[in-house]
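Practice problem: predict the structure.
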Amino acid sequence: MDDVVIVGRVARAHGNRGQVIVNPETDFAEERFAVGEVLLVGAGDPPSPRTIREVRFHQGRPILALDGIETTDDAEALAGAELSIKVSSAGSLPEGTYRHQDLVGCEVRDTRDTVLGRVTGVEGPMERSNLVVEGARGEVLIPLAAHICVSIDPAARLIVVDPPEGLVELNETGHRDDFSAHDPGAARRRDRRPGD
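Answer:
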């Protein structure tokens, strides 16, 4: 089976016609949750393909009607289910945009060639994304911004950063509670674009 990209998770059932509310995990929700798109539902082997019949957005979250999900009980059974798409059907991303899986595992070095660690995750919405980097001194958050992440080469598994003085130390584990804009409740997004 093709590699997949997680685009959201079912939060809960909505109404009495089998609709579900989704917590999106993509910065391209309008594209990923459009009528006619096919989502792979659940983490089963294989996950169940479901076509989106209807969609509307409420406070940034899609409310979906999926083929084969007709009742409240059907919808409630999907609570917590991953929603993904095949990479091959995702299409190309805009220039300077990366999928979560393209960044996780990349080595992070600064412009002086000092290794800071490896990316273990990406947090926050597109305009305030942070790379979660596990290094020798613990976890560090590095803003995924074009002026800080000066080179991103997923093929070489390397990200070169030019952080402002003190940024890495400020965002190390233990310092964030006082100084960082880190939001521990932020959903992990799967498609990323460095901000300007």
